[in-house]
Amino acid sequence: MNKSRPSSIVVLTGAGISAESGVDTFRDKDGIWSKVDFREVATPEGFAADPHKVHAFYNQRRAGLKGIEPNAAHFALARLERAFGGAFLLVTQNIDHLHERAGSQGLIHMHGELANALCGNCGDRRQWEGDLSTDSPCPACHANGYLRPDVVWFGEMPYQMERIYAALAGCDLFVAIGTSGTVYPAAGFIEEARAAGARTLELNLEPTEGTNRFSDAIHGKATEIVPEWVERVLVD
Ligand code: BV8
To answer: In this structure, are residues 97 and 79 in contact, taking their beta carbons and an 8 Å threshold?
Structure first.
């Protein structure tokens, strides 16, 4: 690890950072996509074909948010943001709220937020704690049957991409934490960072298919390797 402290960090997190908080990942053994076909529950076509199935899938995951807490990796990233002193952006693919609950502020949910509902009719977006169904009327336009989870499905454009690409173009350190690097455009962020001349670091339970694209990699449990890495950055 280069001894000079970076001046601008972009961190990308995936499901692996929430795994030790009890949130299922997608592509590990017994992961979410081993139990349900993503085309049926995480695409606009799936929602159009069977909205009840999609609502049931997200209602169950939204209910699961109640029993989970941020872990040491979430708290370490919030501490890094506060103590680091340079430019810091945390981009998460996750739709849980554990980063906010750990205190992270400069945060982009590029795949949306499970605790929010979006109206397909008027575009209203608001916090939604309970179940969603095809009978839930939109509180803004009162239309029925248009409310959906405010989550980016496959084939839909992730949120705040311009802001993310601008941060990647100006960063000198890009860190991917707990992501398999399978889903685009997030999986392409490392190439943007390399093109900007940034150092790149993979923090993950085990090597991913893209590990060799990173200048450094540390493998282990997020609750162990993320706090250790943050300490090293802050003492440099
Ligand atoms: C788009 C929200 C275009 C829903 C999700 C071919 C090439 C390039 C692209 C494509 C292609 N074919 C199709 C595409 C596009 C597609 C895509 O990339 N498909 C993949 C499968 C090839 N992408 C899209 O459709 C995106 N949109 O391209 O739009 C466009 C252009 C113009 C105009 C309009 C549209 C949208 C993608 C977003 C889809 N939504 N989620 C939901 O959550 O229900 S994706 C889903 O995957 C989740 O968001 C998840 O976060 C994301 C990535 O998964 P990971 O987070 O990485 O999770 P995973 O389980 O895979 O990995 C976990 C990792 O953690 C592992 O490495 C594991 O080792 C590690 N780990 C486990 N435990 C621990 C740990 N690490 C540390 N500690 C531990 N304890």
So the answer is: no
Per CATH, the number for 30-64+116-151 is 3.30.1600.10
Q: Is the CB of 206 under 6 A from ligand 1?
A: yes
Taking every pair of Cα atoms in the chain, the longest distance, rounded to a whole number of angstroms, is 57
pTM: 0.96
Distance 93 CA to ligand 1 centre (A): 7
Determine whether 159 is exposed, middle or buried from the number of CB atoms within 10 Å of its CB (0-12, 13-18, 19+). middle
Q: How far apart are the first and last CA of the chain?
A: 10
154 lines ligand 1 (CB under 6 A): yes
CA dist 211 to 10, 14, 187, 190, 192, Å? Answer: 17, 15, 12, 10, 15
97, 99, 111, 142: which one is catalytic?
111
Segment 30-82, tens digit of pLDDT:
999 999 999 999 999 999 999 999 999 999 999 999 989 999 999 999 999 99
| pLDDT tens-digit readout, 170-183 | 999 999 999 999 99
Instruction: Tell me which amino acid residue 172 is.
Output: D
Residue 78 DSSP class: H
Distance 179 CA to ligand 1 centre (A): 8
Q: 8-23+70-111+158-235 adopts what CATH topology? A: Rossmann fold (3.40.50)
Please, are residues 186 and 158 in contact by the beta-carbon 8 Å criterion?
Answer: yes
